[in-house]
Amino acid sequence: MVVNFCTISEIIPQAIFLEPERFLTYNELHPTLYKCPAITDFYKNKFVIKSPFDFYGEAEKQQDHLLLNTNAEETLKSNFIHFTQTNDLQLNIFDYVFWSDEDVEMEVIPPPINNLLPVSGMFNIKNWIRPVHPSYYVYPSVKQFTFNIKRGDPYLYIKFNTKKKVELKYNFDKALLEEAQKMAKSSRYMKGFRKFFKVFEKIRPKKLTK
Question: For the chain, how many structural domains are there in total?
Fold first, then answer.
């Protein structure tokens, strides 16, 4: 099964992004684990999205905003972290978009960071095409935490729930990506957003894979 993917960033050049890597290859599990079908079947369609740069930061929570001391340039700093009044923390200096012409549920799984709660999600990438990035819940009791991400470290885990083996294919479709960004922004304001999935499914082109 072919799954299209692309990266989106207003300030990061496409050339520095790293290719997603299969989880089993990235982690180099013990050879005996590869002999267990329960393990290989579970991880065969899980991928690691790797950070293209080093990032270190110390964050201090003050009411509804964060104070961030970081090694990043100001442009990077202002775009990297979004913190809301609901204690939702998003790392979205860059996003990934995945889509397919076949029904497949994709899980979005952030890697652990300190004592924050990774917020995962899952949706059908045939019916809904939108950018994804790591999100975390900052417990009210947590006042300070740090980031220490090296180039090549996991930025996000992606898992495709299908029995078929997924092959990722880079596909920079500018028109499609612009629509995906619009859909993502609209979800913040629309009530009953699940109904929008069905609308998109009706207007979606029958084939998007190139």
Answer: 1
**Is residue 208, in this structure, part of any structural domain at all?**
no
Q: Which of 86, 95, 78 shows the shortest CA–CA distance to 117?
A: 86
d(CA 96, CA 100) in angstroms, rounded, equals 14
| pTM, 2 dp | 0.83
Q: How far apart are CA 79 and CA 93, in angstroms?
A: 5
Residue 160 in any domain: the answer is: yes
| Number of neighbours of residue 71 by Cβ within 10 angstroms | 12
DSSP string, 98-167: EE-SS--EEEEEPPP-TT-EE--EEEETTT----B--EEE--TT--EEEEEE-TTSEEEEEEEE-SSPPE
Residue 115 falls inside a structural domain: yes
Give residue 189's pLDDT: 45
Rounded CA-CA distance 51/33 in Å is 27
Cα gap 134→108, rounded to integer Å: 8
Residue 210 located in a structural domain? no
Q: pLDDT tens digits, residue range 97-117?
A: 999 989 999 999 999 988 899
pLDDT tens for 168-199 read: 999 887 777 777 667 666 555 445 556 655 66
Domain of residue 49: give its range: 2-203
